[in-house]
Design a protein that fits this description.
Elements: H1 3-28, H2 30-37, H3 43-59, H4 61-74, H5 77-97, H6 101-104, H7 107-137, H8 143-147, H9 149-171, H10 174-179, H11 184-201, H12 207-215, H13 224-228, H14 231-251, H15 255-261, H16 267-295, H17 298-321, H18 325-343, H19 346-351, H20 359-375, H21 378-387, H22 392-411
Helix pairs in contact: 1-5, 1-7, 1-9, 1-11, 2-3, 3-7, 3-20, 3-21, 4-5, 4-7, 4-20, 5-7, 5-11, 7-20, 9-16, 14-18, 14-20, 14-22, 15-16, 16-18, 17-18, 17-22, 21-22
């Protein structure tokens, strides 16, 4: 890819990293601030409360997907990306200054809830805006490779958050972390968002969007009416996201808590396992994305679904029995290698399903719905099964979601060779030649 392509990918990915750092740092530090906002009587109940607020953020994602997807299709990808980071910065500031239960009772939890609602709005549009931007900004023969950087940056955001957690765990006492140390990552997140705001204000719009905007000034750009013409593709996005998002949040967001709360590993060890596994996971994304440019998207999606359906129960069962760093790391890496078949290419697959005039909304809204129903609730469902004394039920739930998506992957069309510049409201009129 040329220098201009790399510049667009860099700016889009850097902003995405900060967005997802702020999103995931809530989950990674929840074990420290759960007691600050809720009565200190049951650690699992506290985690369920914070996980519930985490899930609420997901239920705002469809609203953010609709609002910011519309902005992205009508005003441009750049406008949508700039607005998402503004909302994320505001939410990080709110969490950083939220009063504790001892100071304001449930008032602190209310502030936390408002912050998560803002984060839900932001991330609801961020995923689609960045997926669309990275897909449109790349060389047509390298769309899988280029769009894989979305999950590289998402994972990098979580790595930075976990890395900061490791540093704080080794430089602050456990009491200090529970008392005030958990606020530090949110302060840094707000500062990072301010830097990204500047970068995005100066980013370049994609050529695909600019060419389409000159030809099409219709009032239906980015509207629900225009999306309804592509309802089959919208439902396809929901179904193909279902298994991937549950598996992703299980092995990233929930993994640290699972190793600490169920396997009994020390928090520091559990955090280090997640941190190390995610570094390897991030490095795998471009490799798998490039492979999809050669062999197609469906083979990778099918490999993920088969692996997740068959291996989730044994991996999670063995993880619960892991008593040290290396066994836990090995199992976590095996799980994330399987998940890579979905994460590396799902952004471009969804973007490739829709024409330019409704691409951002087409990706944003159905993806956000799927995440609200399955991704955002994964951690809460896991803790619910644990609290009910049937934790293994969650393992089967993850496997079942992957099995449903497998049916979709087998029956869907290949999208690698679609020409984004010639997709209209009907089926794509021609294809490009991939190398």
């Amino acid at each position: 890819m040329g220098r201009e392509h790399w510049k667009k990918i860099w700016v889009g990915s850097a902003g995405n990293m900060v967005e997802w750092y702020d999103w995931f740092v809530y989950a990674s530090f929840a074990t420290y601030f759960a007691g600050a906002f809720f009565p200190d009587d049951n650690p699992t109940a506290q985690l369920m409360n914070t996980a519930g607020i985490f899930a609420v953020g997901f239920f705002m994602r469809p609203v953010g997907g609709w609002l910011l997807g519309r902005v992205g299709d009508r005003r441009g990808r750049k406008a949508a990306l700039t607005l998402t980071v503004t909302l994320m910065s505001a939410s990080a500031i709110l969490i950083a200054i939220a009063p504790t239960y001892a100071v304001a009772g449930y008032g602190g939890a209310a502030v936390l809830l408002v912050a998560r609602l803002l984060q839900g709005l932001s991330v609801g549009g961020e995923y689609a805006a960045s997926a669309t931007y990275l897909t449109e900004a790349s060389d047509p023969r390298r769309r899988g490779f280029a769009s894989s950087f979305q999950y590289v940056s998402m994972t990098a955001g979580q790595i930075v958050g976990l890395g900061l957690q490791i540093v704080l765990q080794r430089t602050m006492s456990d009491g200090a972390l529970h008392d005030y140390g958990w606020r530090i990552p949110f302060v840094l997140g707000a500062l990072g968002a301010a830097v990204v705001f500047y970068l995005r204000r100066n980013m370049l719009e994609t050529d695909v969007y600019e060419a389409e905007s000159v030809e099409d000034e219709g009032e239906e750009r980015g509207t629900l009416r225009a999306l309804w013409r592509h309802k089959r593709e919208a439902f396809l996005v929901i179904a193909l996201t279902m298994g991937g998002t549950v598996a992703y949040y299980t092995y990233t967001t929930y993994l640290t808590k699972y190793l600490s709360n169920s396997a009994g590993l020390p928090k520091q060890t559990a955090t280090l396992v997640s941190f190390t596994a995610l570094i390897v996971f991030a490095c795998l994304q471009p490799l798998a994305g490039r492979l999809s440019d050669r062999i197609g998207r469906r083979p990778l999606l099918i490999t993920f679904a088969v692996g997740s359906t068959l291996l989730t129960v044994p991996i999670m069962t063995l993880l619960k029995q892991a008593d040290s760093f290396w066994p836990a790391l090995g199992l976590a890496l095996l799980a994330l290698v399987v998940v890579t078949g979905y994460t590396s290419i799902n952004a471009c697959v969804k973007a490739e399903l829709f024409p330019t005039r409704v691409r951002a909304l087409g990706v944003a809204l159905p993806y956000a719905v799927a995440n609200a129903l399955f991704g955002g609730t994964a951690e809460y469902v896991a803790l619910w099964f644990k609290d009910a004394g049937a934790e293994s039920g969650f393992f089967w739930y993850v496997a079942a979601c992957a099995a449903v998506s497998l049916v979709v992957y087998v029956s869907m069309r290949e999208t690698r060779d679609l020409d984004l510049t010639r997709m209209k409201d009907g089926q794509p009129s021609s294809v490009t030649t991939a190398s």
